[in-house]
Amino acid sequence: MCTIELLSNHKINSFKSMRREEVSLCVESIRAAANNRGVAVDLSDKVSSLSVDMSCRMVLGKKYRDEEFDARGFKAVVREGFTKRMKSVNKAFDNLFEKIIEEHLQPNDGERSKDFVDVMVGFMGSEESEYRIERPHIKAIILDMLAASMDTSSTTIEWALSELMRHPKAMNKVQKELENVVGLDRMVEESDLEKLEYLNMVLKETLRLHPVVPLLLPHAAIKDCTVNGYHIPNKSHVIINAWAIGRDPSAWSDAEEFIPERFEGSNIDVRGNHFELIPFGSGRRRCPGMHLGLTVVKIVLAQLVHCFDWELPDSMLPEELDMTEVFGLTISRAKHLRAIPSYRLHK
Ligand code: HEM
């Protein structure tokens, strides 16, 4: 149901104008900050809020303001919920999700794209549908969709921006490509994305060095099998280190270096067809949100690099930018990315 009804290309494309609205709001807030010349913005915070807002609108139909949820705030509790404190925030989630399902059972004006909860409520209790789902399923899937979409995309955007700031030549090249394809008189649209070849190489190179789900999800063998001469007994848990594969010197030359040009004329993609690059996994349990993730990452990255020039604060040199990682279910930056924007479009 998630793959066919919620995360299909068709469904994801139906949220294009919502994404445009939210990305524009983010650009506007950075533009306002840019008026304060020389002042750095916290890009990690900006990108993370944008991602939470887009996920909420797509899954739940609206943004949730912190105070509407719990004294601790919506974003903080969602984050807490994905860590060891799941049990302690369980009640708060359950109350919120019950309220959301109730709201979705009321008639709506039919104007906006149907959010994920609308779609699932539509299947609830139906004898004919091939999906027999009830409230507990819906609540579990809401949580899954928020968990899987909120931090993955924003962390990838942060790493891509960090690498571009450490590599001004690559940053320049992305900006030149955007100038050629889009010009400086309008903002990037999702329909421009497939023409941005260098931006796509930058994204592949970012996902090679910084696959946000470094060990994928745990898999299990469902029968005895032999892979490359190794015997894998039935029921073994199999953990795949995509992070190490992306940096394996036997698969990549200058494996630790950020060189987007390595993908020039290469057919290696990130979709699970080439085992040296598997940031979304591969095969039947590959990430079902890949199209959504790639779309969000590309449009936000393109917009931020097209609309602004970026300078590191405190006269920091590009090579001094701290790239320390924090290891967890996802790998994120240890320190927030801060940089000084200046607006560069003509409108
Ligand atoms: C750049 C963004 C993203 C990356 C790098 C990413 C990566 C991954 C990876 C590596 C897996 C595990 C695959 C495996 O073990 O073989 C996964 C699973 C999953 N992802 Fe994503 N993901 C991203 C965005 C998203 C988004 C936006 C959604 C949307 C809701 C999503 C939904 C899921 C779900 C539901 C699963 C579990 C699938 C299953 O158990 O079969 N992901 N993702």
From TrEMBL:
Gene Ontology molecular functions = heme binding; iron ion binding; monooxygenase activity; oxidoreductase activity, acting on paired donors, with incorporation or reduction of molecular oxygen
Q: What is its main location?
A: membrane
Cellular component (GO) terms are: membrane
Keywords from UniProt, A to Z, are: Heme, Iron, Membrane, Metal-binding, Monooxygenase, Oxidoreductase
Q: Which cofactor does it need?
A: heme
Q: Name one Pfam family in it.
A: p450
Q: Where in the cell is it found?
A: Membrane
Highest taxon above the source species: Eukaryota
Q: Where on this chain does heme bind? A: C287
Q: Please report which protein family the annotation says this sequence is part of.
A: Belongs to the cytochrome P450 family.
- Would you tell me the protein name for this molecule? Cytochrome P450 CYP736A12-like
Q: Which organism is it from?
A: Prunus yedoensis var. nudiflora
